[in-house]
Amino acid sequence: MRQEATGMWTTPCPSCGVSTFVLHIRCRHCGASVRDRIPVLHLFSTLWGAVEAPMQTALRVGRSEKKNYTYLLYALTGPLLLALLFFIARVGYSDVQFAYLLLALAFAGPVLGLVLLSLAALFQRVLFNTVFGIHLTYRLSAAWLAWSVSPLMWISVFILPLQLAIFGSMLFSDNPAPWEIMPFPFWAFAVPALLAFLWSVLLLPLAFRPYGPAYSAILLLQLPIWLLLFAALAGGAFLLRAILF
What CA–CA distance (Å, rounded) separates 41 from 60? Predict the structure, then answer.
């Protein structure tokens, strides 16, 4: 691969030598194949690639013909988003039984993840088209966002159930706060969750580097996407408090 004067990443055609964008499979000049096909993504190698080789894995996601697992990752991340909404709303103060909260996390959580992250992917597509003139398909925008939130997905699947088992409904209140009652287990779970969020924020700009913009510029542009997600959760928490209290 090489970087053009415009910043775009290209690869030379093996037949005619003309530079072709790294995500394209055929030369724009002679039509020859410039790389191997990637029909589908392998879930676990793609997830592990976020740690082992994030840039190469982002390229692989972009080059894949079928962006499989996008909505699965959205759904699996959803319970974590709903748990954060419950915490902001302080539902631990309400009369809702903990069993009902668990059912909501199990069934409404995936739906929330699908809706919020799909809207975030759409917003991301519009944002990059407007600011950088990058014409993304929705499928590609959604796939890259799903891959970047995979660290949060691991927290949702493995850490959140442990937190619920240990803290119960106290996880969603601050009187008493779980970090005051059981500080060691709380921070033992909270620190990995915070690191996972930071890793997700840092992963997402890598996917757009082949288009040319600097990493720092992409990172700044994507901050509104995370702020939008948080604002949506805060708005949902406000409505939930109005209903419950």
Answer: 8
Scan for tokens 């724009």, then name that residue: 28
Question: What pLDDT, in 10s, does the model give residues 77-121?
Answer: 999 999 999 999 999 988 899 999 999 999 999 999 999 999 999
Measure the CA–CA gap between 70 and 102, rounded to whole angstroms: 24
Question: pLDDT confidence of 5, banded at 50, 70, 90?
Answer: low
Q: How many CA atoms lie within 13 A of 93 on its CB side?
A: 15
Query: Is the separation of the CB atoms in 168 and 160 below 8 Å?
Result: no
- Nearest by Cα to 209 from 217, 198, 200: 217
174 — phi, psi (to 5°)? -130, 20
Parse the chain into domains and list their residue ranges.
1-36, 40-244
Rg of the chain over CA atoms, in angstroms? 21
